[in-house]
């Protein structure tokens, strides 16, 4: 069952097999190139994590209601934890890019609403208008308009930070 | 041919393996060692990784610079190790996937192998996770892509829901703590792979976790050459404020990332999780009713044991599980080392190479242990691998039942073990006769195993010796002897079809006689030729027997060679040194197996000469005896002792 091939030929063929193995490893470890975006595209990333207003206002419990509650938990105010849905709209050059409604996180719907979207957009100058509604009535209560000039490959981050006054557009 | 026609996949593998066998040989065929190669690659990854980690700085600011310094500052060491780390990781994926596909194609994922299959699938994903995690560390453009794509992919999961990517959304968000976490993961994940790999191989008896050394050298040389020709380099530093248009992509680790833009992250999750689930349940899915549900028994000779063969087990798996010294090498029906005789019962044979089990073999009842699954209770007979797990060596007491002076200085001594216990041995092995002071003298079995309850020894008189003179002068029928055995690794290899050349010098004929009688008995059709070298005609003490064999067996020839024929011998046959006679008749020994037994001088002269004429070490077997102790050779202790036996 051993090979009848001359020793030099066996070694040569083994060398070829190892070389083929190396070529496969070497080639597919870097090639073919993967295209992440079109050459003339910039990137927009909408990312925020925002705790909306409470869905329901606090109300005072009645005496009957308080009586049904254990004495150590008898808080006069009933403040439901549920927060409102966050609605965000982002327009570019007057045309809508995103219209997203995000429920609050958490089992009791009392957490922050988190959104992440990535979208390629053509490079160049653009007018952006962002609007956000985070109250129970759904009315827009934050908005910002900005003009941005983006180079190919540049990333524009649209964030919402209440402490910074609302929308934050970041580009390096 | 195997009992069921091979599938297309099996045919493909068999034909590639057949091609590889022609120049790698069955023992070094990488396709028979995929699991062991994967182990080896993982060790390369771990050891190179340890070195890289010593120079790697786990901070956002310094990670890139530290990898660059290692790559370019230590170009021919650290740089090469980095490349080795990368390419061994890539090769690991390729080899593991091939390993998985091969086992699936050959249906070796069912039955008791389900555990190895399922753990193998988990190992594959863990390996992916470890590799992808590794790409995050150099903190270059590829790291940026991998981090972003991974976190975006995870963000689609309900629990995470968009919060993970925010950790990497801008340069300001990426902290040193995140880097420490990534580094920690890159240590933990490979260690998990290693631990699971250990568990993975536990279920397979005697699983090979190290490839043959030649394969190790080949693999590491090949990857090192690749590292030198195409070093693994970092891309530009990561910059979360921009995104490059194209990337050099690792298609071994990142193909799923290329799917995400086309399928969407959620669908890619569904696809991969669905594929994983399918792979996990594959052992229990059957498109064809190939599964065997019943446990059968196999009676095994020469061990005289009956062992259960569980569903999905081959006879080899079952034997190894029970610790039997069954011979094997490739375990894939390629080498034929595990060839044995089916004495009784019925087996189905999984696909194998025709060269490993010919039609003639099958017609004569041979099967491959590694490919045979029982269809009934079976009885098999195999030749245990000498040296691997030898038959148990025990001490016996025997009585002399026959003394026959074959020539002036050779006595045939027949022994019978007290208690009538037959001694198990392989043809070619020997015993050590124990002298009163514990000294040992070695003599080969001169009959085939199991032909008689008597042990035949050929004892040559060594003048001045401590044991043999007594055999000729004092020993009588009825005397008691103590001995230990069986010993030695000089045994007949029945896994080859090559013609055999036996070379015997003087009483080196004894083990050759044992092998020949065994071969005749077992119906071997291999061409066999015996060259028996002695000084003069009177030393050819059983020449008539050898001539009788030559008359009775067409596949056997006998050529006596005398080195110092006396005039009264009127010798017209071959003269000179026995190995020179062989080389004159066979200038090319590459297609033969040679078994040589005689004095150490004869063997030492013959072996290199045979090698020069094309014999490989795999096909040349020798047993030499010399005087013991070696100095003084003519002292009172001088006696014949086997090399490899116990020297006193």
Class based on secondary structure composition and strand pairing of chain A: alpha+beta
Quickly count the helices of chain A: 2
- CATH C-level category of the largest domain in chain A: Mainly Beta
CATH class of the largest domain in chain B: Mainly Alpha
Q: Any low-confidence stretches of chain A, pLDDT <50, length ≥5? A: none
CATH topology of the largest domain in chain A: Immunoglobulin-like
Q: Provide the gyration radius of chain A in Å.
A: 29 Å
Order of helices and strands of chain A: HEEEHEEEEEEEE
SSE arrangement:
The complex is a heterodimer of chains A (172) and B (648).
Chain A: H1 7-28, E1 34-35, E2 41-50, E3 59-60, H2 63-67, E4 77-78, E5 86-92, E6 95-102, E7 113-122, E8 124-133, E9 142-150, E10 155-161, E11 166-170
Parallel strand pairs in A: 2-10
Antiparallel strand pairs in A: 2-7, 3-4, 5-6, 5-8, 8-9, 10-11
Chain B: H1 8-24, H2 34-55, H3 60-73, H4 78-105, H5 114-135, H6 141-155, H7 176-202, H8 213-229, E1 246-247, H9 255-263, H10 265-281, E2 296-301, E3 305-309, H11 315-321, E4 339-344, E5 347-349, H12 359-363, E6 366-368, E7 372-374, E8 378-381, E9 394-407, E10 410-417, E11 430-434, E12 440-444, E13 454-460, H13 468-473, E14 480-487, E15 500-505, H14 509-521, E16 528-534, H15 543-552, E17 556-562, E18 574-575, H16 578-585, E19 593-599, H17 600-612, E20 620-627, E21 640-642
Parallel strand pairs in B: 2-8, 15-16, 15-19, 16-17, 17-18, 19-20
Antiparallel strand pairs in B: 2-3, 4-6, 4-8, 5-7, 9-10, 9-14, 10-13, 11-12, 11-14, 20-21
Question: What's a quick, concise take on this entry?
Answer:
The complex is a heterodimer of chains A (172) and B (648). Chain A has 172 residues and is α+β, with helices and mostly antiparallel strands.
């Amino acid at each position: 069952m051993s090979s009848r091939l001359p020793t030099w030929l066996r070694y040569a063929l083994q060398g070829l097999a190892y070389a083929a193995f190396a070529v496969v490893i070497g080639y597919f470890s870097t090639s073919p190139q993967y295209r992440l975006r079109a050459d003339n595209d910039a990137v927009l990333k909408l990312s925020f994590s925002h705790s909306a207003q409470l869905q329901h206002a606090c109300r005072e419990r009645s005496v009957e209601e308080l009586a049904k509650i254990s004495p150590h938990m008898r808080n006069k105010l009933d403040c439901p934890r549920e927060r409102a849905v966050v609605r965000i709209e982002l327009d570019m050059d007057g045309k809508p890019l995103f219209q997203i409604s995000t429920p609050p996180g958490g089992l009791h719907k009392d957490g922050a609403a988190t959104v992440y979207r990535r979208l390629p957009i053509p490079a160049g100058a653009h007018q952006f208008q962002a609007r956000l509604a985070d109250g129970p009535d759904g009315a827009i209560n934050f908005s910002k308009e900005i003009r941005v000039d983006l180079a190919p490959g540049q990333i524009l981050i649209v964030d919402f930070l209440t402490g910074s006054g609302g929308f934050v557009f970041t580009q390096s | 041919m195997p009992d069921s026609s091979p599938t297309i996949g099996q045919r493909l593998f068999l034909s590639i393996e057949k091609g590889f066998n022609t120049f790698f040989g069955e023992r070094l065929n990488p396709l028979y060692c995929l699991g062991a190669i994967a182990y080896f690659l993982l060790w390369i990854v771990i050891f190179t990784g340890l070195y890289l980690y010593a120079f790697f700085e786990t901070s956002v600011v310094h990670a890139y610079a530290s990898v660059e310094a290692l790559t370019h500052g230590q170009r021919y060491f650290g740089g090469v190790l980095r490349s080795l780390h990368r390419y061994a990781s890539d090769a690991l994926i390729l080899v593991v996937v091939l390993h998985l596909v091969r086992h699936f194609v050959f249906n070796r994922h069912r039955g008791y192998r389900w555990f190895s299959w399922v753990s193998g699938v988990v190992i594959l994903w863990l390996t992916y996770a470890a590799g992808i995690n590794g790409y995050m560390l150099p903190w270059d453009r590829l790291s940026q892509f991998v981090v972003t794509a991974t976190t975006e992919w995870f963000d689609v999961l309900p629990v995470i829901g968009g919060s993970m990517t925010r950790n990497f959304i801008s340069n300001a968000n990426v902290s040193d703590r995140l880097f420490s976490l990534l580094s920690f993961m890159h240590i933990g994940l490979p260690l998990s792979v290693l631990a699971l790999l250990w568990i993975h191989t536990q279920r397979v008896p005697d699983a090979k976790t190290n490839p043959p050394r030649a394969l190790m050298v080949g693999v590491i040389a090949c990857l090192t050459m690749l590292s030198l020709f195409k070093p693994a380099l970092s891309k530009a530093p990561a910059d979360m404020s921009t995104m490059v248009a194209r990337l050099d992509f690792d298609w071994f680790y990142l193909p799923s990332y290329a799917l995400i833009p086309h399928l969407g992250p959620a669908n890619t999750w569904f696809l991969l999780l669905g594929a994983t689930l399918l792979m996990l349940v594959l052992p229990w899915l059957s498109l064809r009713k190939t599964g065997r549900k019943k446990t059968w028994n196999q009676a095994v000779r020469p061990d005289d044991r009956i062992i259960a063969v569980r569903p999905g087990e081959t006879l080899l798996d079952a034997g190894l599980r029970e610790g039997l010294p069954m011979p094997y090498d490739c375990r894939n029906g390629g080498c034929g080392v595990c060839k044995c005789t089916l004495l009784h019962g019925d087996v189905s044979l999984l696909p194998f190479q025709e060269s490993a089990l010919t039609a003639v073999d099958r017609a004569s009842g041979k099967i491959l242990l590694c490919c045979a699954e029982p269809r009934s209770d079976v009885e098999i007979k195999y030749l245990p691998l000498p040296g691997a797990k030898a038959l148990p060596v025990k001490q016996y007491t025997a009585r002399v039942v026959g003394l026959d002076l074959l020539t002036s200085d050779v006595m045939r001594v027949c022994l019978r073990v007290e208690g009538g216990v037959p001694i198990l041995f392989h043809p070619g092995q020997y015993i050590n006769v124990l002298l009163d002071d514990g000294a040992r003298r070695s003599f080969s079995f001169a009959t085939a195993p199991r032909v008689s309850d008597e042990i035949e020894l050929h004892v040559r008189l060594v003048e001045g010796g401590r044991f043999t003179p007594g055999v000729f002068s004092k020993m009588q029928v009825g005397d008691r002897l103590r001995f230990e055995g069986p010993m030695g690794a000089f045994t007949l290899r029945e896994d080859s079809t090559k013609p055999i050349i036996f070379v015997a010098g003087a009483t080196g004929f004894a083990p050759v006689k044992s092998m020949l009688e065994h071969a005749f008995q077992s119906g071997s059709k291999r061409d066999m030729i015996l060259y028996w070298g002695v000084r003069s005609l009177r030393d050819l003490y059983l020449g008539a027997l050898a001539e009788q064999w030559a008359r009775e067996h067409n596949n056997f020839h006998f050529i006596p060679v005398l080195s110092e024929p006396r005039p009264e011998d009127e010798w017209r046959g071959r003269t000179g040194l026995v190995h020179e006679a062989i080389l004159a008749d066979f200038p090319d020994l590459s297609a033969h197996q040679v078994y040589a037994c005689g004095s150490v001088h004869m063997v030492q002269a013959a072996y290199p000469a045979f090698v020069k004429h094309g014999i490989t070490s795999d096909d040349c077997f020798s047993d030499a005896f010399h005087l013991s102790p070696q100095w003084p050779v003519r002292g009172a202790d001088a006696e014949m002792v086997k090399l490899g036996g116990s020297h006193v």
